[in-house]
Design brief:
24% of the residues lie in helices and 14% in strands. By secondary structure, the chain is α+β, with helices and mostly antiparallel strands.
Length: 457
């Protein structure tokens, strides 16, 4: 049964009552005219509400290839073969479950919804992270039967105790990830490990549609209260000898949905595209060169473009309970605590030739898409282009209140260490230290109001 949008439902109710229907409040329209009204487990998997007919077929083709498993080369389904030989997952949705957030592993269990990025000190040829000479830039935890996985990765968690200003206690989880059983010889002794959980993929096209000049202007603003001042990450553009503004990934290391998609195909599933035609194994892992290929490229241009359309036009769900007294109170506190200095409530998209549906939309993503120093507690000690180990892109908050419904968990932050939104706030440091301390010292009722607001997004 197709979900009924709130706008349509209100129109029906208004007609039945013999009066005019009420329009949604602007605050509800997180994605502007693209916003969908759905609170089911499929809330992150719907197309933009205003998606044009010319993109609908590609959206559903992209949906299929995003969700179905890819197969080893020489498979009978030739359009879906070429997996590996080294990989993290067999499909996009294996990590981005229902287009939402992945979950971190339990203690001493291998990760299944994460990328384990690695690098050594210094910069690589493109100015980005310098790869390990044997294992490259990411640990491939799975492989085809003829090939050994790169390694086994196991986490452990240490509990850290703290207290709110009123004396009530809390604990935070400090994760440690150990790489064991390397399959192709020793790893560099100075390797840096960064575990990254898969983020939700809603609203990506809208974020790409925010003009670059907007992000640069935000970065040029004088320092805000608490010394908050973001910066853009200048990253390599595939196939071009230039640096461009990054927007996607935990450190804003990818500039576009297209490049992010190609990197995910390549790094996570071992699938080549026209944009990234090289396999994802190193010279030290030459065994992979003897195995059949799924074609050149393994992801055809038609399939790749359909996935890009899909990822670009996945809709953002509407906000909920915007007039609830606790939510309104929490929204005021969000501003008073200075959370909105980084989690910017409102942006506007520019003109998008490829996707006119995304053009000139007022959106409410609660991000400035800039890098901010979040302190040593969250540092992964890994340089990613201009981002230091302590710096992370401001995570968009839209849809965050539906993660429990869509993904059946409430793990947050880049590595999923926070078990709920309160823990996520309490991990903030650096530029967010003062805001975190204000939250920690709030009365319990105000803490609840702030969390009620976040759960309305």
């Amino acid at each position: 049964m197709k979900a009924v949008g709130l706008t349509s439902l209100l129109a029906v109710l208004g007609a039945l009552a013999g009066g005019a229907a009420l329009a949604p409040a602007p605050e509800e329209l997180a994605g502007g005219e693209t916003t969908v009204f759905d609170t089911s487990p499929n809330a992150f998997s719907l197309s933009a509400r205003n998606l044009g007919e010319s993109h609908r077929a590609a959206f559903y083709v992209g949906h299929s290839f995003f969700n179905e498993n890819w197969l080893a080369a020489t498979a009978t389904v030739s359009s879906r073969d070429g997996l590996g030989p080294l990989f993290v997952a067999r499909s996009c949705s294996a990590c981005h479950v229902r287009d939402g957030r992945g979950a971190p592993p339990d203690d001493n269990l291998p990760p299944e919804m994460m990328a384990i990025r690695i690098s050594i000190p210094g910069r690589g040829p493109d100015g980005g992270p310098k790869p390990d000479p044997v294992y490259g830039g990411q640990i491939q935890t799975h492989a085809l039967p003829e090939v050994k996985p790169e390694a086994v990765v196991l986490p452990t968690y240490e509990e850290i105790s703290g207290a709110f200003g009123d004396g009530s206690r809390y604990t935070l989880r400090q994760p440690r990830y150990l790489i064991t059983e390397p399959g192709y010889g020793p790893m560099a002794s100075n390797v840096v490990v960064s575990p990254l959980v898969a983020p939700a993929v809603i609203g990506l096209g809208l974020l790409e549609a925010v003009p670059e000049k907007t992000l640069r202007a935000l970065a040029r603003q004088p320092a805000k209260p608490d010394g908050i001042g973001g910066k853009v990450n200048l990253v390599a553009e595939a196939g071009a000898r230039r640096k461009v503004v990054g927007r996607f990934g935990w450190k804003a290391e990818q500039p576009s949905v297209r490049q992010q998609s190609a990197m995910a195909f390549n790094g996570d599933m071992g699938l080549t595209t026209a944009l990234l035609p090289q396999e994802n194994y190193t010279a030290a892992e030459s065994l992979g060169r003897t195995l059949p290929s799924g074609g050149h490229p393994e992801v055809s241009d038609e399939i790749f473009e359909a996935v890009v359309v899909y990822a670009s036009t996945l809709a953002v769900p509407a906000r909920r309970n915007v007039t609830n007294e606790m939510v309104v109170r929490g929204e005021r506190l969000f501003a008073q605590l200075n959370c909105a200095a980084c989690h910017l409530p409102r942006l506007e998209t520019g003109k998008v030739r490829e996707f006119p549906e995304l053009s000139h939309q007022v959106i409410r993503p609660y991000t400035d898409l800039l890098l901010h120093d979040l302190g040593e507690g969250l540092s992964d000690h890994r340089q990613v282009f201009e981002a230091t180990g302590r710096e992370w892109r401001t995570a968009p908050l839209w849809g965050i209140g539906l993660v429990a419904t869509v993904n059946e968990h409430t793990f947050f932050l880049h590595d999923g260490r926070a078990r709920d939104l309160a823990e996520a706030i309490l991990w903030h440091g650096g530029e967010a230290e003062a805001a975190k301390e204000r939250f920690r010292n709030l009365p319990v009722l105000d803490r609840g109001a702030l969390l009620a607001f976040l759960n309305s997004l």
